[in-house]
Amino acid sequence: MITIQGKGVSKGIAKGPLYFFQRSDTTVTLKVVSDIEAEKARLAVAQEQSIQQLNALAEKCRDDAGEEMAVLFETHAMFVEDEDFVECITSLIDEKSCNAEYAVEQAGIQFAAMFAAMDDAYMQARAADIKDVAKRIVNNLLGVVDGGIRSDVPVILAADDLAPSETLQLDKSKILGFVTMGGSGNSHTAILARTMGIPAICGAGEALAEGYNGRVGYIDGETGQLIIDPDAMTQAALKEKYEKQQETKKLLETMKGQEDITLDGKKMLLYCNIGSPEDVAAVLANDGQGIGLFRSEFLYLSASDYPTEDEQFEAYRSVAAAMNGKRVVIRTLDIGADKQVDYFDMKEEENPALGVRAIRICLNRPEVFRTQLRALYRASVYGKIAIMFPMITSVWKVKECKRACVSVMKELEAEGIPYNKDTELGIMVETPSSVFVAEELAKLVDFFSVGTNDLTQYTLACDRQANDLGKFFDPHHPALLRAIKMAADAAHKAGIWIGICGELGADISMLPTFLAMGIDELSVSPSAVLPVRAAIRQSIAQTCTLEMLEC
Amino acid sequence: MKQFEYTINDPLGIHARPAGMLVKEAKAFADTVVTITKNGTTVKAGQLMKLMSLGVKQGDVVTVAAEGANEDAAIAALTAFFNNNL
What we know:
The complex is a heterodimer of chains A (about 550) and B (about 90). Chain A has helices at about 35-65, 65-80, 85-95, 100-115, 120-140, 165-170, 190-195, 230-255, 280-285, 295-300, 310-320, 360-365, 365-380, 395-415, 430-435, 440, 450-460, 480-495, 510-515, 530-535, and strands at about 1-5, 5-10, 15-20, 155-160, 175-180, 200, 215-220, 225-230, 270-275, 290-295, 325-330, 385-390, 425-430, 445-450, 495-500, 520-525. Chain A has 20 helices and 16 strands. In chain A, helix 1 runs antiparallel to helix 2, helix 3 (about 85-95) packs across helix 4 and helix 4 (about 100-115) packs antiparallel against helix 5. With about 90 residues, chain B is of the alpha+beta class. In chain B, a hairpin with a 2-residue loop joins strand 2 and strand 3. The model of chain B has no long low-confidence stretch (mean pLDDT about 85). The interface between A and B is medium-sized, with 20 and 17 residues.
């Protein structure tokens, strides 16, 4: 049994013959030519071909791998035509009477060196792009077709590394997984594997020898192992893992498009938690019916200064539009405690979790709050946005938040900027005090969403960041569950809906309890949607009890 | 000749994508030469590699100049371009 250890960059198990990616032989030799004009004509033809190929790749990329890579290929096409680059090549041909292949290769080396010498990491990385472009032109001059996969059966593709243009041209139906000697979690190979949903390992190193070509291997994208000729025990374990994976896959496929309803007709709203607009793709891919928590912190955490109203507006608008009429609950900034940002200039606190965080910051800094609310209300005409306030502990806080909203709406009205005046306003139930005054709070808002992570922390008096609390930290503690029930009863008494956006929402063992409490909505990570849906569809709400609330 | 100064806002500076777009914009104006100057180094806006090699980053101030028959139209279009993309 041979085990090659690399870094798993895309999950999954696959079994198949190893196939080492063949690059066509493109060694360029210097030749002296007699007809310089003919050589330049050859160059022009190869350039034309290259540009066409690159634009075609860009188009293909838009569908398969996203906008960023498509733009990369379009830029490559521009390099091919760049005046300086072309002048360098033609000058070489003129001076040395050499073949176009040699001139292109040399020009490529020169320009790549120029970029590599720049003091900007982004520019340095462009050196690889120039090399890729030069190689393409040379290949076209030589009349060589890029290496493909010559195999009748699907294979595990092995290579030292794969360039972007190479990964894109592969016949995907023939690939079960990737394993490369080099590369990283952010390399094109990894990204493509994750998009395709197949396993991939990178950094396998020298151990990945071409001698293994043709041998049957098992690739585990989670552990990062490539195993050739596994012993009986390993094989059995891998087989089991594989079968489980297939089962889940099948389950997921059948669950897509199905309603989130119990066997006895109780409907639930099954939404997703996201941290940035990029996550929306996963929500849609996993058939999430809305977004129950859009954490707005990324806008503040990833910047070096306060995000502008326009920047925020664009982010909220894009998500609202992408969700196409499905509800998007956006939480106002929740900085503090474990999420720190320099430019906020917050004082050091002994107990950040109990300090000035989240809504307290907003109420202390009305300008910051106003900017975010303006952006949210402006975006509210592009979809179904709901605004949610975190860390609510009192009735007066909610009233102040609502006053801020009214003030913003008046401003926008006066400026003639459209907004949706019926935008739902809700609060996170994540503090014990909000549970005790839940009845009064429910009268003021349109919905509750339980932040179980923080609610557990504050109710059990246990630091959620600590690792050594062990048995003291019980996520299913009756106290917590009773708190949720109190909030649920208060919500229903006032006729508003209640959801759960903390991690407990995806805990399937809690589903019967939630059904018994009458929780209306669960917001989970995109990958948990279909498993939770499956569980909902197998449940009978009437038979669910509150026994977990007993001590 | 007409010109204007611009401070780059985009965190990536004049990177590949806007550089490519800028090249296209600049070339659209017949009989007019567009140049970009940073810290005393001037390059023609139609040359992608040279433009990128200027290494224009966020916060840099560049002078965009146009000279020729269509310089007014060029400057107007380029002002809009920089505001929208950089």
